[in-house]
Amino acid sequence: MKAIILLLLLSTTLAAQSTWPVAKANQWYQDQPWMTGANFIPSTAVNQLEMWQPDTFDPVTIQRELGYASTIGFNLMRVYLHHTAWQEDATGFKDRIRQYLTIADQFHIKTMFVFFDDCWRDEYHPGPQPAPKPGVHNSGWLKDPGSAIDTHPALMDTLEWYVKDILSTFKQDERISMWDLYNEPGHFGHGDKSWPLLKNVVAWARAVQPAQPITIGIWNKDFTAFNQFQLENSDIITFHNYRDTTSLIAAIDSLLPYKRPLICTEYMKRPNNSTFATHLPIFKRNGVGAINWGLVAGKTQTNFPQGNKGGEPEPALWYHDIFRADGAPFDPEEIRFIREMNQR
After folding, report:
1. Cα separation of 206 and 57, whole Å?
2. What are phi and psi of 182, to 5 degrees?
3. Of 70, 11, 32, which is closest to residue 213 (Cα–Cα)?
4. What is the distance between the alpha carbons of residues 168 and 51, in angstroms, rounded to a whole number?
5. pLDDT, tens only, 245-259
6. What's the pLDDT score for residue 2?
7. What is the DSSP letter of 320?
8. Which of 66, 146, 152, 299 falls 20 to 30 Å from 38 in CA-CA distance?
9. How far is CA 150 from CA 127, 241, 338, in A?
10. What pLDDT, in 10s, does the model give residues 272-289?
């Protein structure tokens, strides 16, 4: 009898942790509009903590800037969270998430939340955030959890409580389109150190069983072991591509055999010939969702080129982003084209 009970428990656990069947994933996708949008942080925030902490949470700016997105037909924002905001004030953090979702819903915009990230600054702390370095691309963006997970192993327990609390709270919220569990695992030199958290966050999410699909985006074709794990554990396949149309078409072709919905969750780097004019028609023709980097140029300064030293004037050709803080477009023709693509 004990053996039978153990077997039943094991099968239940495995079922709870399984990826959506292909048919379920495709039915879910068919019920959605063509997904277009941007990675969103309000122009008044230098990083994720400044967006979500109580003293700097800025619903006025969020409302105004999501309004810009709605005017061009965007219907999905990809938004980064940070565990430190939850650790400092879990109840308040969740209330601010609700406020954000209420604002986005007014514009018929759904949200893809991102939990973890291996990119940019390794050190972070609650409270006032550093001012952006003039003209430096993403000078204040934060990893989550970064190398803290290596030096403080007990942090893994905190991260489990965090992920399960957020997912349990919002697992049935129809304003949330999907959950992106981990942005670019292994990046910025983390390499294989990212494996434990990557495997754990998948297990934590599957244990909660949110109604929304989960995903972990492919970002580096050379990271074959990471890529295979991410593909095997994603209900919806997401990927990043900042290169030209030849590279984009090759990426799409390489992922089509998985027969799951595809969404590009990072693209649009104008100096790389990754633009709305070149890429949106390809995405639409192939039924692939399109989420570019950056909506409004602000304290993240991602309209400046990556890797720059700072202090330079604003570039004539923006790297990322679409609007200025006052709503003026970087390129009016670009705005017209996006709107036209979303209305077809």
Report:
1. 30
2. -160, 115
3. 32
4. 22
5. 999 999 999 999 999
6. 37
7. S
8. 146
9. 23, 29, 43
10. 999 999 999 999 999 999
Mean pLDDT along residues 183-188: 97
Residue 263 to residues 79, 201, 239, 276: CA-CA distances in angstroms? 15, 21, 7, 15
Tokens standing for 179?
A: 């959950």
Q: Are 331 and 340 in contact (CB under 8 A)?
A: no
**pLDDT score, position 309:** 87
In the sheet where 110-117 sits, what is the strand order?
214-215, 176-183, 110-117, 76-80, 36-39, 289-293, 262-266, 237-240
Tokens representing 74 are 């965007």
pLDDT (tens digit, 9 = 90+) per residue, 326-339? 999 999 999 999 99
Please enumerate in sequence order all residues whose Cβ is within 8 A of that of 235, keeping only pairs 6 or more positions apart, or say none.
19, 20, 24, 25, 28, 178, 213, 214, 215, 260
Tokens of 280: 């949106």
CATH superfamily of 33-343: Glycosidases (3.20.20.80)
Predicted pLDDT of residue 17: 67
Residue 315 has a pLDDT of: 97
Comparing C-alpha atoms, which of 74, 51, 53, 70 is closest to residue 61? 51
Please classify residue 193 by burial: count the beta carbons closer than 10 Å to its beta carbon, then call 0-12 exposed, 13-18 middle and 19+ buried.
middle
With 0.90 as the threshold, say if the pTM is over it.
yes
Q: pLDDT-derived band of residue 241, with 50, 70 and 90 as boundaries?
A: very high
Let me know if 166 is exposed, middle or buried by CB neighbors in 10 A (0-12, 13-18, 19+): buried
> Rounded to whole angstroms, how far apart are CA atoms 282 and 284?
5
Query: How far is residue 146's CA from residue 117's CA, in Å, rounded to a whole number?
Result: 8
Number of H helices, E strands in the chain: 13, 8
Place of tokens 């390809």: 282
